[in-house]
Amino acid sequence: MSANPITIDKIILHKLVMSLKDPFETSFGTFQDKEFFIVEMIDKDGFTGFGESVAFSSPWYTEETVKTNEHMMVDFLIPLLLKEPIEHPDEVSKRFQIIRRNPMAKSALEGAVWDLYAKRKGWSLAKVLGGTRSQIDVGISIGIQPSVRSLLQVVERYVLEGYKRMKIKIKPGWDVEVLKEVRREFPTIQLMADANSAYTLEDIHHLKKLDDLNLMMIEQPLGHDDIVDHAKLQAAIETPICLDESINSFDDARRAIELGSCKIINVKIGRVGGLTESKKIHDYCKLQGVDVWCGGMLEAGVGRAHNIALTSLDQFTLPGDTAASERYWDQDIIEPAVTVENGIIHVPEKPGIGYEVNRKVLESFRVDKITVSNE
Ligand SMILES: O=C(O)CCC(=O)C1=CC=C[C@@H](O)[C@@H]1C(=O)O
Ligand SMILES: [Mg+2]
Q1: Distances from the Cα of 67 to the Cαs of 23, 35, 55, 163, 218, in angstroms?
Q2: What residues form DSSP beta bridges with 167?
Q3: Of ligand 1's atoms, which has the minimum distance to the CA of residue 167?
Q4: Which domains does the chain show, CATH number per domain?
Q5: Given a cut of 90, is residue 253 above it in pLDDT?
Q6: Could you tell me the pTM of the whole model?
Q7: How far is residue 115's CA from residue 119's CA, in Å, rounded to a whole number?
Q8: Which amino acids are annotated as binding site, given as ranges?
Q9: Residue 2 — very low, low, confident or very high, per pLDDT cuts 50/70/90?
Q10: pLDDT in tens, 271-286
Q11: Which residues pair with residue 242 across a beta bridge?
């Protein structure tokens, strides 16, 4: 038993609904309101850690939803956390192994344990994760726009704001020609496309046209749960494939790399089940020479803070999707808000996630609250 294991006293699940500044459209559809949980975890010594769930209200991205997250956390995962003290946050994913899948529910709770652990040590979350960077390069993800003209205006705005990489959502009918226009207008920017599984192997010849556009990568062109067809596509095109939805665990990443299904991985803490699993993927990709970057799930400030800490690890070699709070929210739930200067975010050095939760603002967006005490 370590000198000071974590004994959780209380877990509060704050259910929030926040309205995005601009509607977010992908190949799946459009949404404006983000419903999610902020996990507040208080231990017997009075330390408080925060996590954030990233599942959407409907199962369009993966099978998880806000409702399944609530069910899994309250009925299965929290009881596993409360049953005995926690020596180290790496234990959490082991304890959760008896529960199948549900990575986003697991990650929301595990993230709060990591924040609590860092605060108890007096270290930043980046430091306890093994981060080496004091600042990180960030890019931005741009949803499908109503016209090419408005897309070019949005790209220009973010290029002027200094974002290091532009991610453009594509789908059949809004892809090669649109990207050609962006590349013509911005010949030197770091440019990538995210297809969110909108294509099949029948589109190989069409997707091959992307090779003329000097893209950094094409993200998740094929099936959300595929690595075999992606290997065939990667063998047929020059543009590096990046996997997002297909990678839900360390083993998924290992198998995809072994098969040659991708050359880059978009690591999302919630999608893979937490920070411990994210670190395992990061460490394996470092050994294999596979670039990784940190994807986004339109998080509020707590999730954004976790993404910043993870991105400080050295194999996060490519700009991620962790843009500034103001890109998403009129008012974020953390202080200070996450800011980006010339495409750079400074990694907080304060203990834990490095940002304070503004309780007044959090409560202004709260629609439900579930408290579980450790009897
Ligand atoms: O948080 C951000 O700004 C990135 C958002 C983003 O690009 C995505 C969020 C969720 C699902 C997808 O549509 C897409 C992605 O695939 O990364
Ligand atoms: Mg993606």
Answers
A1: 22, 10, 9, 34, 31
A2: 141, 192
A3: 7
A4: 8-122+357-373 (3.30.390.10), 127-356 (3.20.20.120)
A5: yes
A6: 0.97
A7: 6
A8: 194, 219, 244
A9: low
A10: 999 999 999 999 999 9
A11: 219, 264
Tokens of 168: 């453009």
Question: For residue range 64-73, what is the model confidence (pLDDT) as tens digits?
Answer: 999 999 999 9
Q: Check pLDDT > 60 for residue 244.
A: yes
Q: Which of 132, 118, 124 minimizes the C-alpha distance to 350?
A: 124
**Structure-derived torsion over alpha carbons of residues 245, 251, 253, 257, reported in degrees to the nearest 10:** -130
pLDDT, tens digit, 9 for 90 and up, residues 5-38: 999 999 999 999 999 998 887 666 788 999 999 9
Binding-site residues for Mg(2+) sit at 194, 219, 244
Active site residue 279: no
- Is 268 a known active-site residue? yes
Bridging pattern class, strands 140-142 and 135-137 = unpaired
State the pLDDT at residue 122.
97
Q: Whose CA is closest to 268, among 5, 56, 9?
A: 56
Q: 216 near 190, Cβ under 8 Å?
A: yes
Residues in the chain: 375
Ligand at minimal distance from the CA of 158 is 1
Q: What does DSSP assign to residue 357?
A: E
Q: Dihedral, CA atoms, 335, 297, 55, 245, nearest 10 degrees? A: -160
Among 63, 224, 321, 328, name the best residue to mutate to test ligand 1's pocket (greatest count of ligand atoms within 8 A of Cβ). Answer: 321
Q: Where are the alpha helices (DSSP H) in 83-210?
A: 90-95, 103-121, 125-129, 148-160, 176-185, 204-208
- In the reported structure, the alpha carbon of residue 295 is separated from the centroid of ligand 1 by a whole-number distance in angstroms of 7
At how many degrees (to 10) do helices 176-185 and 148-160 cross? 40
Summarize pLDDT for 94-126 with one digit per residue, the tens: 999 999 999 999 999 999 999 999 999 999 999
> CB under 8 Å to 311, separation ≥6 — which residues?
131, 133, 136, 138, 293, 294, 320, 322, 347
Write out the two tokens for 218.
């094409």
Among residues of the chain, what percentage have pLDDT more than 90? 94
